[in-house]
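Supplementary Methods, section 5.1.

A reviewer requested that the exact input to the structure prediction be made available. We therefore reproduce it here, unchanged from the version used in the analyses.
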Amino acid sequence: MLEGIHFCALTKGFVSAADSECLTFSQDYFLLNGVFFDESESSITVKITCTKEKEKQIIVNNSEIKPFSRHIGRVPCITFSPQEIVIVNGAPLERRRFIDNALSQTDRRYLDDLLAYRRVLHQRNALLLQLYEQHSPPNDMLSLWTEQISRLAASIVHARMKFAALFFLHFKEIYSRLSVHEDPSILYRCSLGSISPDISLEDLYLLFIAKFKEIEKQEILRTQTMIGPHRDDLVFLLDRKELKKYASQGQMRTFLICLKLSQHQFFSEIIGEKPLCLLDDVFSELDSIRTADILSILETCGQTIITSTEIKEQRNINALSIETLKQFSAK
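The structure derived from this sequence is encoded token-by-token as follows.
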């Protein structure tokens, strides 16, 4: 269920982004039909087909969607799965993916800039490699790519910094509602170094241009773009200590759950609608007090679908066993 809903909302699987891994073993294709309702009761129909031989096809309200990124944000959705613990204890890539997911569903310009940035980054890296192999000095083409990537990098980093500041307000409020006594912090670590959160977009662009000029020869020697949003990170702290270095497994899991619940509040504020919550095994390794705290918060979060090995005794929960679901699907 989570896989199917997630695919309809975000055009990819819940656990794996590879479409081929979402196919049932020994099957040649899958077909999804979903109907979603926003808070004004307007319906959105989503049909997705995917085969081994052809690219998936996405049809929304009887119109085919291409590129697939056009559908992102139409069915707002947040997820939790145990594998996502890498957001708090894994590589910076995982935290960049978290912030990109949040912003891409709420800001169309951010998503467009992010996709354009990835294309320009690829082209610029290819040119750096070419200059290195040919022992050539920097040229006008590199200056052109540098100007483009600086504009896009400034736009992305500016949006991320504003997001981090606003998001942390939601996070701190959510964290205070749990039975914990720690002081959390979230910082945006930019590859440019220390930057004022109030910096203007144009000043940020000028900083990128100046820094790229400074490290131009070094980038050619390394054949890679050395600064930019693809090198940035979110830093999570508890009591001024870095979470991934010093926190327990329970603290990390609690922090991750709060990130997801805060993402829900952020979505609700920005788009004026409560997103779907897809939570896989969210209560494992949590004590009864923390479980009750989270369920209390979830009561205000709109439609939430949770997988669990145990039925939770809480109001407003409709429990379905796996056997019931099997009987339903058989019909």
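The chain has two domains: 1-74, 82-269. These observations are discussed further in the main text.
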